[in-house]
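Predict fold of ATP-dependent 6-phosphofructokinase; 791 aa.
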Amino acid sequence: MAQPDNQSKRFFESLSGAGKSIAVLTSGGDAQGMNAAVRAVVRMGIYVGAKVYFIREGYQGMVDGGEENIKEASWESVSSMLQMGGTVIGSARCKEFRSHEGRLKAAHNLVQRGITNLCVIGGDGSLTGANLFREEWSGLLEELVQQGLIDEDAVQKYSALHIVGMVGSIDNDFCGTDMTIGTDSALHRIIEVVDAIMTTAQSHQRTFVLEVMGRHCGYLALVSALACGADWVLIPEMPPEDGWEEKMCQKLSANRAGMKRLNVIIVAEGAIDCNNKPITTDQVKDLVVRCLGFDTRVTILGHVQRGGTPSAFDRILASRMGVEAVIALLETTANTPACVVSLCGNQAVRLPLMECVQMTQEVQKAMDEKKFEEAVKLRGRSFENNLKTYKLLAHRKLESELPHSNFNIAVLNVGAPAAGMNAAVRSAVRVGISEGHKMFAVNDGFEGFYKGQIKEIKWADVGGWTGQGGSLLGTKRTLPAKHVEKIAEQMRAHNINALLVIGGFEAYLGLMELLEARGKYDEFCVPMVMVPATVSNNVPGSDLSIGADTALNAITDTCDRIKQSASGTKRRVFIIETMGGYCGYLASVGGLAAGADAAYIYEEPFDIRDLQSNVEHLTEKMKGAIQRGLVLRNENSNENYTTDFIYQLYSEEGRGVFDCRKNVLGHMQQGGAPSPFDRNFGTKISAKAMLWLTKKMNETFRQGRVFANTEDTCCLLGMRRRALVFQPVVQLKDETDFVHRIPKEQWWLKLRPLMKILAKYKTSYDVSDSGQLEHVVRNIRPKESDASGAM
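Predicted 3D structure, encoded as tokens:
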């Protein structure tokens, strides 16, 4: 698809791995996505000309040595690895490596193979061990010389050991990164179980107490509580205050009185009270039964959370980190400290390994010393914001505690349905009520608005909405321009003081039309904000939209099944059509997550020569050990090179080597329950939007009414690199291709070379965008920096 150009030549000259050896190992507990990281390290390493080795069974394999434990990897040896959970190369906890003698054996085994570059995928213990090994390296080599096991030439040749770490841990307990490899997949497992339990709990009016992993970190418990709307959550970083038992029972009882038929309590396995005493699920169950008499059950999820296939998010995260780790190894010098490849917003960054480890240890120290607020802050802004949002949404204030604003806010969904919209509406309604506002729900978008389908919506009305797919309010693509007079009438009739619009490109266009109507109708001179929600991820001003992650998971899961259908048969190539309009996000990022060989999109024009080149490339691969090929095509990538055309071309040109099948995924990409990521993103971005509306209404309240007519009172709230940013929609006009309904510049296009490199294409890769070494500073991230932008 792409031929080498000047940039790729610069890439090879500046980052050649020729003559270098890289070893990759997974250590400590396993995490879904580790295989994707191993695959990326192996293929990127081979791509730049280095020799790459697997070290099996973690540090144990490094200490034991031998052909079976330290084995050279080939391109084909990591095929079909992407979708597998756990770690294919094995992981073990190794006592011997903790001793000096064990590390001496490991050093000898590495020197024998000329390995001086290590890529370690594991938790803080594994990475701390790697750093100690690096610090001792020159001393270990001297000892090996004294023992006559290596000569002086080897000491000169292999004088420095370079280490790059990637954090593989489902607990997300490592400071310095928004998300660790495996966390998102673990959340998928938890939410699948919680969603299933909720249906049976509802049938019998039961209370369920669920224990999730997290011995020292409550991230999984906290985010899963946010994502399922749990009644109560117990985490080690923020133990409940004295008397929590009574408060919890009052909350559960009040929820039942409000016609809720079930209760869910989530407990992290390391949950403690404010005296550092453990709180167990059985304790919680006994408490509920004794005080309330509710039928209560305990479910301990255990190792289910570590299992299963990695989510799309974890595959992309691990693939990006793996490629970045190889680049970091090639750029290291003898003076470069060991670094960990990390994620901040949607950017890859490099951080000094020991700074991250020290801060991670400080969290535990703060908890031991009962400095719980400090522990939460040390976890980072992402964790802190999750906790604040949960408290805001889960605990309803009494009428007497609410501020009385006399403001009315309308919320509506516009455009096509997207998973996560309901979580966003629930969040908006509850935050609005907590701020003292009256909330109004508009059914069926702008169409329902002008028809008067508006009614007040209360706290209890949105209970259980987070896990629901589609749009419970109803959504239409109708734009407001032709109906502004009637919409203005409805705004006047219900005294609407602010608008929250949740939707895709139509919502963006609709907001601009309402802004224009301000000149004629004062009713639109109110604060208005849009939250992007569309599977296509084509809204300008935001790197990510609610619903895109769920669609990516649908694509990835389907591609996995489709590829599996060909196992054991003759060689086969699948041509898959994805949604997205003219935006190639789903095809490109879905291609990276599913291990596609090519992805055809509108933003990157292609012609018949590119198609021919791709067929030839696949033919060559199929003649080897590769059995299956995957090609994705965005629905509007080219009006002439249709899915049928590409299918027929591949079928004809691959005759005798492989056969072809085609699939159009269609609306299954819009359906299904929202992923944990979309639930969490929708919840937090919507809460932030509501707090902004409150601030703007207070700022623009004059002479008994809200009057907001400046550009900065009509905004889109979007994820930009590392932060959530409010941007006036007027300022986004120049960034928009209105004909094709896409932003003129799209950040994810930088990920396309990764997909091509991992599919064995020679292509240009802009290394100038690689993460530079930064330093860990407490809570340095811009406001709301979050894993939400990580894709």
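Residues 1-13, 779-791 have pLDDT under 50 and may be disordered.
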